[in-house]
Each structure stands twice: as structure tokens, then as C-alpha cells.
Amino acid sequence: MQIFKFLFLLLVFFVTVGAEGQTVVATKKLTIKITNIKENNKILYVGIYRAGDDFPAFDKYWRNIKVPTSGSSEIVEFEVPVGEYAVAISHDLNGNGKLDKNLFGYPKEPFGFSNNFKPKLSSPSFSDCKFTFNHANSTISIKLID
């Protein structure tokens, strides 16, 4: 009988921890309110980045979502663990799937960053736009720059 208890507890351990020793990380909902949307029926690309990701490259995010616009603001949600993040958003007005830029590298389409950071002469760094998500501050707002 003892061997069955031992085998049962061993089975519970492997199911809980996983065969590869992975642990489960608790996540909570991060809500991002995006404002200053000027055109509807276009796509917003919203990317979340962690330290070490290629921020703000609009195709090198940690997690992302594509949202069709239908008003002057949109709300998106991500499930994320506690940590430091930065958000970059682009509004694809011509439907080509990328953020178009002018000769000097400045975006020709609306964009935005967490902390409502407004770049001057170069792209922002992760530290310019980072915020700490600790479940208490579950909503951030980003105003698009056009």
C-alpha cells in the first residue's frame, strides 16, 4: 500500500512541475488603452517587449496583437507575469504590414510608445519606455503620435 502512495505522489509531482522541470508562472491581465486613433478600418500592431528584446523593432517583440480600428480609441489586453516591459504601437494606414518611414527614418504612419515617450532624433531605448507591471498597475494608456 505504501508503494502506491509513493507512486501516486510521484505522479502528482511530475504533473505539477512538468516532466522537463518547468514551473508555472502566474500571469495577470495588462490592459493597454490606445488613444488618438485618426483612421478606422486599419490595423494597429501592438508589441510588448522585455529587456533584451530588440525594442522598438516592430517585428521583434516578445508578444504582439493586431487590432482593427473602429473608433478614436481601442483597448487591448495581454496576460503577462510581473516584470519590466515596454510597448510599441504602429498604425498601419496603407495595409502593407510595416511601419513606413521617411528619408530620415521618422515614421510616416502613427505610432506610440509606453510612457508616451516622444522620440526626438532617434528611436527610443527600452529604458526610455519601460514600466514595471506588478499587478497593481494593470492599465496603461498610450497616445498615438501622428
From TrEMBL:
Signal sequence, start to end: 1-21
Domain of life: Bacteria
Record bears the keyword Signal: yes
InterPro entries listed in its UniProt record: DUF2141 (IPR018673)
Pfam families per record: DUF2141
Keywords assigned by UniProt, alphabetized: Signal
Name by which UniProt lists this protein: DUF2141 domain-containing protein
Annotated source species: Flavobacterium cyanobacteriorum
Lineage, uppermost ranks: Bacteria, Pseudomonadati, Bacteroidota, Flavobacteriia, Flavobacteriales
